[in-house]
Amino acid sequence: MKALEVLASLLAPPRCPVCDEVLLPGTQCAACAPALDRLAYADCRPPCAVPGLSGLRSGWRYDGGIQEGILRMKFASRPDQAENFILLLLSRPGMCTFVREFDIIIPVPSTKSERRARGYDLPQLLGRALSRRTGVPAASHLQKVRDTRRQVELGGAERRRNLNGAFAAAGPVRGCRVLLVDDVTTTGSTLRECAAALRCAGAADVWGITIAATN
Ligand SMILES: [Zn+2]
Question: How far is the CA of 1 from the centre of ligand 1 (A)?
Fold first, then answer.
């Protein structure tokens, strides 16, 4: 382990993102393993297809301990759990190899109000952690170009309308294989609109990766 990593693990020791117990570096939580296995998608393939994405990989169903852990990471001032969730996600079989097939990791843009409320940009933290652990560069090459209503307040068709044209590429993506990262996907509307903006800017291929999916 590098000196900086030792220091970082002392300041913010690795924790199980599900039950929040401190873990020895490089180990996983034995107590949560059975519950995680029950929520895991076979081959990290959730059943939902997102039009506009070539494919989507998610670790687990958004339920039980995974849901609790994600809510803690989002709403209880726990940005450290982004790193822990990414470590857990990359421990799934084939996940590291999958991520390394991409040219660039791009986080789904969060809204100003989300950043203000949390004090951190969660998809960006997930993207950086994914980049650190796989060596694939991460860049915020997408931006939100207009305000939208909160997706959680809306139904499926409304969600799509709400986001139509809301994103635009904000960096060079022409010819790139892009991996979009977010914490959870529900209807896939956000990933779909982000993918459309990236394809418009010339991205060769766009996939998505999330920790969890709701179906
Ligand atoms: Zn645990």
Answer: 23
Q: How many whole angstroms separate alpha carbon 199 and alpha carbon 52? A: 9
Tell me the CA–centroid distance for residue 28 and ligand 1, in Å.
8
From first to last of its 215 residues, the chain has per-residue pLDDT tens of 566 665 665 677 899 999 999 999 889 999 999 999 999 999 999 998 888 899 999 999 999 999 999 999 999 999 999 999 999 999 999 999 999 999 999 999 988 888 888 889 999 999 999 999 999 999 999 998 877 777 777 777 777 677 788 899 999 999 999 999 999 999 898 999 999 999 999 999 999 999 999 97
Distance 32 CA to ligand 1 centre (A): 4
Ion ligand 1 contact residues with beta carbon within 5 A: 16, 18-19, 29, 32
77 CA distance to ligand 1 centroid (A)?
19
Asked if 191 contacts 50 with a C-beta cutoff of 8 angstroms, the reply is yes
Count of Cβ atoms closer than 10 Å to residue 157 Cβ:
10
CATH number of the structural domain 30-147+155-213:
3.40.50
Contact 210, 58 (CB under 8 A): yes
**In the chain, where the domains are located:** 30-147+155-213
